[in-house]
Amino acid sequence: MATIRKQAIRVDQGSEMAAVRSHVLGFGGDVAAEIHYSRTTSKSIHSDDYIEAWIARRLASPRLQVKPIPLAAMGHWLIESGTGNIIHDSGMFFTITGVKARHRSLGGDMEWDQPIIDQPEIGILGILVKSINGVLHFCLQAKEEPGNINSVQLSPTVQATYSNYTKAHGGAVPPLVGYFLNPQRQRVLFAKLQTEDGGRFLFKSNRNMIVRVGEGELEELPDPFIWLTLRQIALLLRRDNLVHACTRSIISSLVLSRASQTSCAEGVMSLAEAIQWLDDEKAANHITVKRQGLKTLKEWSLDEDCCFSHREKRFFRVIGIDVKSVGREVSAWSQPILDNPEMGIIGLLTQVRQGERHFLMQAKAEVGNRSMVQLGPTVQFTPSNYAGNEKLPKPFLFDDFSAGSLFPFSWQNYQAEEGARFYREAHLHRIAELPEGDELPLPQGFCWMSETQLRFFLHLGETVNSCARSIISCLL
After folding, report:
1. How far apart are CA 38 and CA 333, in angstroms?
2. d(C-alpha 372, C-alpha 195), whole Å
3. Where does residue 12 rank: exposed (0-12), middle (13-18), buried (19+ CB within 10 A)?
4. pLDDT (tens digit, 9 = 90+) per residue, 344-363?
5. For the whole prediction, is pTM greater than 0.90?
């Protein structure tokens, strides 16, 4: 259990550190004002009641029938005889392969092996934005994926791999993807590479994009797309498992759009110090990753259900699913997908420090990220992975975010993982508040960051991990 004590707050009102900082990575003043207005105004093209009814109709009409099957029963997917890797017979889509990893840090030396998704293409995750009656609206779609908990989730305008939008698989080009292919620079509000889940994807990034269309464009959206304001998206985020993980990733870039442009007073870390802290943490974590076949993994194997699972039934397993579709270009298919046996917890601790909201971030090492160490949320863990596990020590604040005995929670609900690669997976998102003036002793690898600093890292790209972006979006 964590302990807290009162801070000794030092404010030097005459310090030169209170000077206005020049604009760094983020949104300019006019765009920031538009974002704020979309978040706060009640004006919108569709009423909240209309949107509720629109979503309810789509949730009530699922088009996918999904059934778990043994890996060996999948059509067009093979368990490769030499390596044991799970591959598509076309050589396309993605591969489930193995990695052997070693992580050395000040906390110790750990080795393990695991399956991982190998899909090296950079995809596009894009949202179109349009000013309608003076208010920014964001184009989302009600999209169904085979691993979804609900039938549909509110997904970005476009989710497309390079193979999708170049028609490498022979299918149709995704609707509206043309707006994200080499758009005019003045139309691009945001475009940064951001990493996928670094614990289960190997070196996978997607380009998160927000692109503006003119007021005279897209007068009619095709089904199942809809225009929503940020206020409406914020309301929908409060519902369990409705706003897609890729949407949350993109939206996280908008949350801190109006963060202070002034530096903080003495006693709070500067942006330069925050950059240096993260670099120090990267230098202190030494990770080696070696691809190897699934057959060679010592801790994983095919189980009695012909799923690929951990010997202690921890972490996740690779299963097969059979999918039948109504009204889609492909009427039936099968595929491997990752199945997590228990919901995890993603938590963020916040505190107001010298007038600006701060976030307790961790330098999170993940085997599948190219930079290895990124900014993670205060906590990200699955409780069962640590129960009786001598190899893994419980992370900092494990009990406090599991039971909620120390910090009051200002937010908690369930947010789903994306359903194309993960099967009916959700995580409890909790945001807690440390009272102003209290101090929490921090272990190695944790640091308080201001809104201004976190906005900088979000707009830098490939620096804030997927779990952190997911829970930051809940602050919208």
Report:
1. 40
2. 11
3. exposed
4. 999 999 999 989 999 999 99
5. yes
